Amino acid sequence: MRNMKKVYLIFVLLTLCLGLVACDCGQTQKSEPVNQENTAIVNDPEIPKEVVNTPVMKNLKITVDGQEFFANLYENETTLKFVEKLPLTIDMSELNGNEKLYYFEEPLPVAAEQIGEIRAGDLMMYGDDCLVLFYENFSSSYRYTRIGAIENADGLAEAVGNGTVRISFSLSGV
């Protein structure tokens, strides 16, 4: 009977240890800075999820027909992979009178969430290959992965206009 208690105690301790290790899986990876200019967007497991999806930097310049907009980037793996593509000039197509979109040839890592309220100036991924720049405020039940948000989107709708528009994304020194 005494040996049975020891076996049971060892089993419980092993189960707890394995459970703690399993809860930590994927949570300890740290990323390197995004570029040599030390823009310091990193994935930090110590940062709560609600903080991770908050703007952390003012270093994205979005140029539309000569007009510049500055965006804060979110701290996540999708943003890291997006920044690796910069500088980037693309033709973005019109969709629904409230957004411009572009399909990448290769997918990006994503962590989609139901956003609810879309704001003009939000830059997100729909699925793993569709970059979306919103230029109107509206509610949505679709799931997106956040990349960034323009600080002041005044004039963005006029700048992007109707139809396809050429947009440049680059890191700024802001």
Which key terms come to mind for this protein?
8-stranded antiparallel barrel; 9 strands; 174 residues; single chain; alpha+beta; globular; 23% helix
Question: Can you characterise this structure?
Answer:
The chain is α+β, with helices and mostly antiparallel strands and about 170 residues long. The chain has one domain (about 50-170): Cyclophilin (Beta Barrel). The chain contains 4 helices and 9 strands, in the order ααββαββββββαβ. It has helices at about 1-25, 50, 75-85, 155-160, and strands at about 55-65, 65-75, 90-95, 100-105, 115-120, 120-125, 130-135, 140-150, 165-170. The chain has an 8-stranded antiparallel barrel. Strand 3 and strand 4 (about 100-105) form a beta hairpin. The radius of gyration is 21 Å and the shape is globular.
SSE map:
Blueprint: H1 2-24, H2 49-52, E1 55-64, E2 67-74, H3 77-84, E3 88-95, E4 99-103, E5 113-118, E6 122-126, E7 130-134, E8 138-150, H4 156-160, E9 165-171
Antiparallel strand pairs: 1-2, 1-9, 2-8, 3-4, 3-9, 4-7, 5-8, 6-7, 6-8
Radius of gyration over C-alpha positions, nearest whole angstrom:
21 Å
Helix content: 10-25%
**Which regions have little confidence, pLDDT < 50, spanning 5+ residues?**
11-52
Q: How much beta, percentage-wise?
A: 35-45%
Number of continuous helical runs: 4
Question: What is the CATH domain class?
Answer: Mainly Beta
Number of β-strand runs: 9
- Shape descriptor reads globular
**Whole-number total of structural domains:** 1
Distance between the termini: 70 Å
Main sheet: strands, sense, barrel: 8 strands, antiparallel, barrel
Q: What integer is the average pLDDT?
A: 78
Helix-strand pattern: HHEEHEEEEEEHE
